[in-house]
Write a structure and sequence with these properties.
40% helix, single chain, four-stranded parallel β-sheet, 2 domains
């Protein structure tokens, strides 16, 4: 009886010791800027400085740990109720500090370095997120899950995302190439280069970005450059769920292959411009649109 009790106590002590050791193990992750971010324990109060980061956190099962977010953090529905800390290019530092976050997750391309430096000076850990490839979305889910202590949910979401991506790649990846011009905006006329996530979505569907070789991630171009590139498809997203009227401005250039073939397409921006699992919703639409363009050859 006494021996059994001693064994039980010893076993329990060992389990408690292991649990304490695990709890004391810091979380160390390298962010997308190559910097190591360390937390003593999973974050409980997270502030998101980009709409796509907010969406990623919810997808990774960490929505209940988000205590603040920037404007346009509107997905899922629960994100609309989060306290606002300004915009991603104009972060309200006082509001961030007032929320007492133990982690801030920022966007390299969208947030200003000066804002992030101030947060670090306050002793707040800052993790930089910058997906450039479709696989980076799955990786981001896993990283945020580790930071928030929601690994199981994050890994499940990442696994589902990779399965969807693989299915699209198998179905469309080997089909004949289609030259695509992606129009972010019309005035000024802007597009993306080959390093942008949207170009990776094009590649997934068998598309070829006609401005892939430009050195700037989101360059400003002119009409003459588009006409010279002769894209078979012009794709735009605009600002909301409605097809932008300026997409039809290309109809005046009847010699443009995309116009001659009737390949002026639209995909809502939140399904193509946000670095989240919903980008595969946009990919499915783009793949179907490129197949439509192939059918018109």
């Amino acid at each position: 009886m006494k021996i059994s009790l001693l064994r039980l106590l010893a076993g329990g002590g060992l389990a408690l010791g292991l649990a304490a050791a695990q709890a004391a193990t810091p979380i160390v992750i390298t962010d997308d800027q190559g910097k190591s971010v360390q937390l003593a324990q999973p974050a409980r109060r997270i502030v998101s400085l980009a709409p796509h980061v907010t969406e990623l956190l919810y997808a990774a099962g960490a929505g209940d740990k988000v205590v603040g977010a920037v404007q346009y953090s509107d997905y899922p529905e629960a994100a609309k109720k989060l306290p606002r800390v300004g915009g991603y290019t104009a972060v309200d530092m006082e509001k961030v500090a007032a929320l007492k976050p133990d982690l801030v997750i920022a966007w390299k391309s969208g947030n200003r370095d000066a804002h992030l430096d101030k947060l670090k000076a306050l002793g707040i850990p800052v993790f930089i997120n910058e997906p450039r490839r479709i696989e980076d979305v799955a990786r981001s889910l896993e990283q945020l899950g580790r930071l928030a202590g929601t690994e199981a949910a994050a890994q499940a979401a990442a696994r589902n995302f990779r399965q969807r991506q693989a299915a699209l790649a198998e179905r469309y990846g080997a089909r004949p190439k289609v030259k695509v011009f992606y129009e972010i905006w019309n005035k000024p006329l802007m597009t993306v280069n080959g390093e942008h996530l949207i170009s990776d979505v094009m590649r997934l569907c068998g598309g070829e970005n006609v401005f892939a070789r430009l050195p700037v991630l989101a360059p400003t171009i002119d009409t003459e450059a588009v006409l010279a590139a002769a894209p078979e498809v012009v794709l735009a997203s605009g600002m909301g769920d409605s097809r932008p009227e300026w997409l039809d401005d290309w109809r005046q250039w009847s010699r443009l292959p995309a116009v001659a073939k009737g390949n002026l397409f639209f995909i809502p921006p939140e399904q193509l411009q946000r670095h989240t699992p919903r980008i595969l919703d946009g990919a499915e639409k783009l793949c179907a649109q490129l197949d439509e363009a192939r059918s018109k050859r």
